[in-house]
Specification:
The chain is of the alpha+beta class. A hairpin with a 6-residue loop joins strand 6 and strand 7. Helix 2 crosses helix 3. The radius of gyration is 20 Å and the shape is globular.
């Protein structure tokens, strides 16, 4: 079990270094002995989960990771149902639309659709990116329907809450109030809480038992005259996906 934990730790580290990372730095960051790090990387490369650049000697994620991810995404029914609706919304509004789901108290971007938009917010909407539970619209849309004890546990676990911009809500009581507003109005807004000049709206997607399956979100440069259009579009998209998933 310890070997699995260490391998996951190394894979997580490789995922954050696009240009690769040397073995010495891997060992330093993870705190693992060089010999242990070498054995882990040898096993990961043998299974194509990691690869070493023959010139720089740096390690990167291997292509097998992509294959595993593709299998997961292509066999996720709600993503399959969401894709055509997301594509239509992205095309009609010319904005980036993305879908997020929760796993182990983390909100993860699992799919996206790009219209004609070309805006510099890819850091927060790449597939596999984690969505901050207190600041991002898709995380708010999902967690707004969680029981109070879960939300309080998340707040305690992540205290103090990180402020990405001066507009990020970080006071626990205000965060809980934000969830309540999101639940009542049926959608969530990230108003420059992640990046200055950028806003996002998201709405929850429900299943046949009215449980939350995820959230669909739309992001763009902030424009007050487009907010109502963005909200109508994302709420309608979420409603269409929910109906396809059997929600009443």
């Amino acid at each position: 079990m310890q070997s699995i934990d260490r391998a996951v730790q190394v894979l997580d580290l490789l995922s954050t270094h696009r240009e690769g990372i040397p073995i010495s730095e891997i060992g330093e960051i993870t705190g693992l002995p060089l010999s242990t790090t070498h054995r882990l990387l040898h096993s990961l490369t043998a299974h194509s989960l990691a690869v070493q650049d023959p010139v720089t000697k740096r390690y990167k994620l291997g292509l097998r990771v992509l294959g595993l991810a593709s299998f997961l995404l292509n066999n996720n029914r709600v993503i399959e149902a969401a894709r055509p609706h997301m594509a239509r919304l992205a095309s009609s509004q010319g904005k980036l639309v993305y879908f997020c789901q929760e796993q182990n108290d983390e909100i993860v971007c699992v799919d996206s659709s790009m219209g004609s938009a070309r805006i510099n917010v890819q850091f927060y909407v790449q597939i596999g990116s984690l969505m901050p539970f207190h600041a991002s619209a898709p995380a708010k849309a999902i967690l707004a329907h969680s029981p109070p004890e879960k939300l309080e546990r998340l707040l305690r676990k992540n205290s103090p809450l990180h402020r990405y911009t001066p507009r990020t809500i970080s006071a626990p009581k205000e965060v809980l109030g934000e969830y309540r507003v999101c639940r009542e109005q049926g959608y969530a807004v990230c108003d420059e809480e992640m990046e200055p000049g950028v806003c996002a709206v998201a709405a929850p997607v429900f299943g046949y038992d009215n449980g939350v399956l995820g959230s669909v979100a739309l992001v763009d440069l902030k424009r007050e005259d487009r907010m109502e259009e963005m909200i109508r579009g994302i709420v309608g998209c979420a409603r269409d996906i929910s109906r396809e998933m059997g929600s009443p």
